[in-house]
Write a structure and sequence with these properties.
8 helices, 7 strands, Rossmann fold, binds nicotinamide-adenine-dinucleotide, 255 residues
Length: 255
Amino acid sequence: MERLQGRVAIITGGASGIGAATVRRFAAEGACVIVADIQADLGAAIADETGSLFQELDVADDAAWARLMALVLERFGRLDVVFNNAGIVSGQSIEDVDLAVWNRVIGVNLTGVMLGCKHGISTMRRNPGGSGGALINTASTAAYAAIPSDVAYSSTKSAVRMLTKAVAAHCARSGYNIRCNSLHPGATETPILRPALDAAPQLLPVFHAMSPMGRMGRPEEIAAMAVFLASDEASYVTGGEFLVDGGMMAGHPGM
Ligand SMILES: NC(=O)c1ccc[n+]([C@@H]2O[C@H](COP(=O)([O-])OP(=O)(O)OC[C@H]3O[C@@H](n4cnc5c(N)ncnc54)[C@H](O)[C@@H]3O)[C@@H](O)[C@H]2O)c1
């Protein structure tokens, strides 16, 4: 259980769901974790529980990222991992999409990931002992099969997939030893699905049935992939896309 011993890792959206499960797992693997989220109470509680540091961060805010990097350098002197995991949904199709909501989803799910990569690379390049690190970007199965009722979410998750490849190839060609991969969960049991389930409880069996395994994923099962991608075991893995979806993308549903 020491696959991330001494690594310094920022986890955005670390206050809840997949992010919180990853904070717990990274801490158990020996990492120094910075929980970065807009939910201060939940984020501080997870940080207390795991011996991590909480820092309030809106991932869409460039200046806030710069402040976070300064804090990380002051406290830890290095940065090894950024898990760009914060994300939001809109529940709006192309017919009812509101421009302010669209812009916010783009800001959090896409610009937020870009800023996490940009600031992460800038800090990781200056690591004592040499440039290096791992960037992990949470996309979704929605990068491959759209959610018609959420045009903004589907668009951002597809874009995160290609953003990841552009970052990965740039870093590798520049000789930075900074890897970048996208992580694509299927339907996973987290609070992000609550509004949809509150509005339509009949969706729960549908979410379970989306995977040929007949069940939704658990946040810990997504966190396990993040551990691999953050660790040295993934030393030759960059620009890749990693489904953790119980086989959802493997075949047509119901056939
Ligand atoms: N749960 C699923 O079924 C599922 C499936 C595929 C992908 N994902 C993705 O997984 C990631 C994590 O989602 P989750 O399911 O754990 O949901 P969640 O709602 O439990 O967690 C998301 C976290 O992101 C935080 N957040 C939202 N906006 C933020 C901002 N501007 N700055 C910083 N933090 C912010 C929230 O406060 C929350 O703590 C998201 O990117 C989501 O799109 C989830």
